[in-house]
Design brief:
135 residues, mainly alpha, three-stranded antiparallel sheet, 3 helices
Length: 135
């Protein structure tokens, strides 16, 4: 019986030895899974309540200054009206779909496009079409 007992003790001791030599994986030893915070940029350190209140007051003060400036000098903030003729000319000069011989109509009359595709467009590329004389 003693032989069996010592054999069992040796078996248990061997099992414990193998267990210590190759530890079983446990949750404490595995790498933690990435969280959402791992993908976000590092944030600024939190501000104190007084710093936060100061930022709010500074923003309010700046907003009041801008409001006062706009009220005192409204002429500085009026949009500049675009010249419709200039806008139409720019649109024609930048139109990539125009082909030689195309006719365009403007407030100033009808024009034939005579430009070349390998050259930049110029106003001189649009030749006026003379209206027919009425009898």
């Amino acid at each position: 019986m003693q032989g069996r007992l010592s054999g069992a003790v040796l078996t248990v001791a061997a099992a414990i030895g193998f267990g210590l030599a190759s530890p079983a994986s446990c949750f404490a030893q595995t790498e933690p899974k990435p969280s959402v915070n791992d993908y976000l940029p590092p944030s600024e350190p939190e501000v104190s309540r007084d710093e936060w209140r100061q930022r709010i007051e500074d923003a309010r003060r700046r907003a009041k200054e801008v409001s006062r400036e706009r009220r005192d000098h409204p002429e500085l903030y009026k949009p500049v009206p675009e010249d419709p003729d200039l806008v139409a000319t720019e649109r024609l000069l930048n139109d990539d779909s125009l082909q030689r011989g195309d006719i365009v109509s403007t407030k100033k009359g009808m024009f034939v496009y005579q430009g070349r595709p390998d050259q930049p467009r110029r106003e001189q590329d649009f030749v006026p079409i003379a209206p027919k004389a009425t009898r």
